[in-house]
Amino acid sequence: KDEGSPLDRRKLGEGGEVGRALERAEPEMKPTPLLRVAEEVKESADYLFNQSGVSLVLRVKPATIYASGELLRLLLFNLADNARKASVKGGEVVIEGERRAEGYYFAVIDHGCGIPPEALTRLTDPFYMVDKSRAREQGGAGLGLALCRRIAELHGAELCFESQVGEGTTVSFLLKGGDRHEG
To answer: Directed axis angle between helix 69-86 and helix 34-52, to 10°?
Structure first.
């Protein structure tokens, strides 16, 4: 991966910001421009999306909140990459973001294969994979959504999954609390 990738091993491993933040109860929170976070995710993911023939579209409204930008980039990158893997060539993945009264709402939306209802409750279990053959083919280990769940929790958020088999999936979360302002 290139140095700007949210999956840079130096950031994930021991001593990296992601590794440290996941080990402690509270990540380092600082003013984080959310539109810029989403733009950086798109820049990092564009190559993979182009190779797959899937478009990544941002519909993110500007806002700045106290958060860990590095962890949010990793969270959004993983969710977008999962959506890409579930999509067909010519498909589209959308990252939406907007301020709401309760905080800042993010959603990652795909129109891919969808997830069976019986699998929804296990999605964030470590090593769980809905489609093991597709996951192996695409290099998955079943840890991405467990990591995403932990990052969301560190920000006081919860991942919400809505899916219809054959129609697609929306994964959303609401970043609550802390001082926030437009910007």
So the answer is: 30
Which conformational region is residue 26 in: left (phi greater than 0), alpha (psi within -120 to 50 degrees), or beta? beta
| pLDDT beyond 70 at 42 | yes
| pTM, entire model | 0.79
Tens of pLDDT, residues 138-183: 555 556 788 899 999 999 999 999 999 999 999 999 998 544 454 4
Spatial distance between the Cα atoms of 44 and 8, rounded to a whole number of angstroms: 11
- Give yes or no for a contact between 71 and 29, defined as CB atoms under 8 angstroms apart: no
Neighbours of 113 (CB within 10 A): 19
Q: Answer yes or no: are the C-beta atoms of 34 and 65 closer than 8 Å.
A: yes
What count of other Cβ atoms lies within 10 Å of the Cβ of residue 131?
A: 16
Contact call for residues 79 and 163 (beta carbons, < 8 A): no
